[in-house]
Amino acid sequence: MLSYQHIYHAGNLADVHKHALLAWMLAYMTEKDKPMSYLETHAGRGLYQLDAPEAVKTGEAAAGISLSDAQGWFGKEHPYSKALGVVRETHGEAAYAGSPLIAAHGLRPQDRLHLAELHPKEFAALDWVMASFPARCYQQNGFDMALSVAPPVPRRGLMLIDPSYEIKSDYDTIPGFIARVHRKWNVGVVVLWYPILSNGLHKGMLGALTAQTLPKVLHHEVRFAPARPGHGMIGSGLFIVNGPYGVEAQAEHLSRVIS
Ligand code: SAM
C-alpha cells in the first residue's frame, strides 16, 4: 500500500526546481503550432493547498515557493509564475500547482495529457482537478501506462517521471524503463526527477543512466540544506533526454537562485 502523499512536500525546493524547468520547457515546445503530448508517470493529486495541516506540519514550502515569491526568483512572464498566478486566482492564494496542473496551464486545446496515479485518493483528486483539460487520467502503474501510450499521438512531446521512490525497486527499474521509452519514442523529451540523498541511494541509478547511450542528456542538480535535521534529502536532480534548445541556460538560472 502506498503511503507517500505529496501534500507534505508541495512547493518545497525540489518542486520549485522541477516545476520551473518543466514550465519553461513546455512553453518553449508550444511556441511551434504543432500539437504535442504530455505524459506523466507519477502525477500526484495536481493541486495542493499550502495552508492544509499536512503542508503546515512540515513547512517545506517556506524555503521553496514562499522564498521564491519573496525574492522574485522568476519574473512575472516566466511560465512557472504564469501557471501559479492562474492557479492562485482560481483556487485561492494558498494554492500550489502540482506538475499536471503546471503542464495543463502551459499546454493548448490541441495538446493531449496522459497522467498516471496509483493511489486511490490522489487519483480521485487528480481526476477532478483535470476534468476541464484535454487530459486522460489513469489509475494505473505509471511505468505501464507510459509504455502502452508511447509513442503518443501527437508524437512530439514530453514525459515527466517523478516517483516518490517509496518503492525502492524504482531505483533499479528506471534506467531500463527510460531506455525502453527512448527506443519506442526517440523524439520524446524524457525528464526524470530524483532526490539527492545523504546516504547515496540514488547513485547506482545515476551510474546506470549515464552508462546508457542516450542523446542530448542534460543532468542538472541543485543542493540545499535538509528540510529538517536528519532529513535525508540534500538536493534535487533532473536527468533530461532530448532537452529543448536553451534548457541549459534555464537550468543555470535555477542553480543561481536555489543554491
Ligand atoms: N509529480 C507530482 C508533482 O510534481 O506535482 C508529484 C508526484 S509524487 C512525488 C509521486 C506520486 O506517485 C504519489 O502521488 C504516489 O501515490 C504515486 N505513485 C507511486 N508509485 C506509482 C506508480 N507505480 N504508478 C503511478 N503512481 C505512483
Small molecules bound: S-adenosylmethionine
Provide the low-confidence segments as ranges: none
Residue share in β-strands: 15-25%
The percent of residues in helical segments reads 40-55%
Secondary-structure element order, N to C: HEEHHHEHEHEHEHEHEEH
Radius of gyration over all CA atoms, rounded: 17 Å
- Number of DSSP helices? 10
What's the average pLDDT?
96
Estimate the global geometry from the Cα principal axes. globular
Largest sheet at a glance? 7 strands, mixed
Record the SSE blueprint:
Layout: H1 13-29, E1 37-40, E2 47-49, H2 53-58, H3 65-71, H4 79-91, E3 95-97, H5 99-106, E4 112-116, H6 120-129, E5 135-138, H7 142-149, E6 157-161, H8 170-184, E7 189-197, H9 203-211, E8 217-223, E9 233-241, H10 247-258
Bound molecules: S-adenosylmethionine.
Question: Key features?
Answer:
259 residues; alpha/beta; 7-stranded mixed beta sheet; two-stranded antiparallel sheet; 9 strands; 41% helix; binds S-adenosylmethionine
Q: Explain this structure to me?
A:
The chain has 259 residues and is α/β, with parallel strands linked by helices. The chain is built from ten helices and nine strands. The strands form two sheets. It has a seven-stranded mixed β-sheet, with helices on both faces. Strands 2-3 form a two-stranded antiparallel sheet. Helix 8 links the parallel strand 6 and strand 7 (189-197). Helix 1 packs across helix 4, helix 4 crosses helix 5 and helix 8 packs parallel to helix 9. The longest helix is centred in the first third of the chain and has 17 residues, at 13-29. The structure holds S-adenosylmethionine (SAM). S-adenosylmethionine binds at residues 2, 4, 6, 15, 42-44, 98-99, 116-119, 122, 141-142, 162-164.
